[in-house]
Design goal:
It is built from 6 helices and 6 strands. By secondary structure, it is of the alpha+beta class. A 6-stranded antiparallel sheet has the order 1-2-6-5-3-4. β5 (about 95-100) and β6 (about 105-110) form a beta hairpin.
């Protein structure tokens, strides 16, 4: 597995200023297709009332209520987002995970500080 960690500010300044964005990029051996996992918004819930587009997990209603999941290959997405993965995502409020083939990008939806950075690194190792 190859990992690249990137922030929009230098490492020296990171201790003093929150980053506007920070992400972790990984290349994995398994291809899960294209998947987007992000916190679900009120707008998503209203749109779904008229047009069903997201992947829900009937066995995990809390995850389905809190997270919006789009996938081009639903069975592979269910495999990628198994119970362990869903628990990790729920535990890390505000996390976004994008899969594109063998590539995975993880980030928080808001500005991050050094504590968030540590959470994100730990999350990326456990997912």
């Amino acid at each position: 597995m190859r990992e690249i960690v990137h922030s929009d500010i230098s490492a020296q300044k990171y201790e003093y200023y929150p980053a506007e964005y920070f992400w972790i990029y990984q290349e994995r051996e398994k291809d899960y297709g294209k998947i987007v996992v992000r916190p679900e918004t009120l707008k998503d819930k209203v749109e779904e009332f008229f047009f069903k587009q997201e992947l829900d997990f009937e066995e995990d209603q809390l995850f389905s209520w809190k997270y919006f999941v789009l996938a081009d290959k639903k069975e592979l997405a269910r495999h990628a987002l198994n119970e362990h993965s869903r628990r990790l995502i729920l535990k890390n409020k505000g996390i976004v995970v994008d899969f594109n083939g063998k590539k995975r990008l993880m980030r928080f939806t808001n500005s991050v500080n050094s504590v968030d950075l540590e959470k994100l690194i730990k999350f990326s190792k456990e997912l």
